[in-house]
Protein 1
Amino acid sequence: MDKSVRIILLGDAKEVYNKLVIAVENQAKQGKTNTQEIQLLKSINQKKEFIRQDPFYGDNILKKQIPSSYNANNLWRVELCNFWRMLYTIKGDKIDIICFILDIMNHKDYDKKFKYNPTLALI
């Protein structure tokens, strides 16, 4: 890709990421090497690099399904380990592309945010 790609964490995503970093640092001090938090942080960092290489890496969410709370014209979903999700929007110009990570959430919160009812999927 000719344009530079920047990744910026905003709002809830930034808060979740920062809490995760602190938790992982504390676990490392305790000698822990493979907790769910460590796995999740590695997964997030790996996916951020995938997005940096290809901003369209994630699954595109249909415009009609984008919650208005995101205030975004496009939304992409990336699956993380342990059934977590990362949501981002892409903005760009002639110089660079910016991927704003808007949310990092577990599957239950993702289902709730998108009004997905897993019991209906079984019918």
Protein 2
Amino acid sequence: MDAMVENTQLTVQIKGVRDGLVIALSEASWPDQQAALLTHINERAAFFKGARIALDVGTQILHAAELGALRDRLSDYGITLWAVLSSSPTTEQTAQTLGMATRLSVPRPERNIRPLDTNLPGEAAVMVARTLRSGFRVAYEGHIVVLGDVNPGAEIVAGGSIIVWGKLRGSVQAGSEGNPDATICALEMNPTQIRIADIIGNLRPRRGKPQPEIARIIDGQVVTEIWNKK
């Protein structure tokens, strides 16, 4: 918002900013500038009621008594004089002494943040949230995830990879359609039979405390190693 009002050959310019209103006075004696300002405010009292203004006085040299008196007069209209802008060091120091700002805050430019691409590619999978007991069989053309144990006598056949979030003690085949890159992971790996693609593994039981393991084809054999080994 910009406005210009002429009063007794004096100009009062008003501009709206984020922190309130900026009122710029023309170059004249301080009594004349102050009179023009108060006359303009008095004629538009409802508009200025509750306003916060920053006063641009140019090169005018003002002391505490003058600025303090104007602040009190504006307060009578319900107006807060929060800043005084001036090219005079004396006026700036006076305003700062009275607790007023002498600079307008400059809004920071918005950062151009490049959004992260969170659309990661995935593959089809089926999740079984239960323990597979003897006699249960799960077959799927994609990946299979089991949240539970796979007991002896249970069977899993997956066209993709197999993840068992539990003890694997049943029969499993990954890459059933001939995919040699498929893997089998389990928190405890001790299957009755393990196969990846057309290769049957012959795993030796590990000694010590069970650890998560992953099985994959390496050099034509099904080999297991510690899962997430660093």
